[in-house]
Amino acid sequence: MLRFYANVNSFRKIVTFFLRFYVMVWYNKENPAKRVNEMNIGEKIKRIRQHRRMTQKELGELVDLSANRIAQYEMGYRVPKKPLLNQIAEALRVSPLALSDGGNGPANDILEQLFWLDEEQPGVIKLVPTERGTARYNANPDLALHYDDNDNWPPRSPVAMWFDDTILDDFLKDWATVQKKLYAGEITQAEYFEWKIMWPK
Prior knowledge:
mainly alpha, 9 helices, 58% helix
């Protein structure tokens, strides 16, 4: 009887585990922004390693680690400390910011969140350059930005937002230029991703 109870109890634990796993996968699939918010360093390492067409063994050899240890980092079982993370970034030939989990200042952290959101949900971020007009916003509180309509705009008028920050502003201008090249077919999706993980170089 005791043995039967133990088997049933184990079975319940297994079923509970898979139910939780299924709910987590479904929830993350339906909520890309949530996935970006929870994307850990290991997932970023894996995404960029695959982009470089590099195996776990090859990456491990570049930083004196086993393929198993790299796998543990990618699965989130272990978290590399900053010196090692910088080594991994160098081995992957990317900016250390691309593997960062925050703590690099508000501006840089915002940029990295935007990068990965754009990767998880392509096309969700639309960047459009602006031209200064003659009307002053403070003189007309009801002033709205006007745009030339085309098929790329949503049916509803979007809300514009800008950052009063030099780093963010310069970055968004550069990003708008690169994104325009992507949509025009001048660069590939891989080249677009390459630009993001190499920023600010």
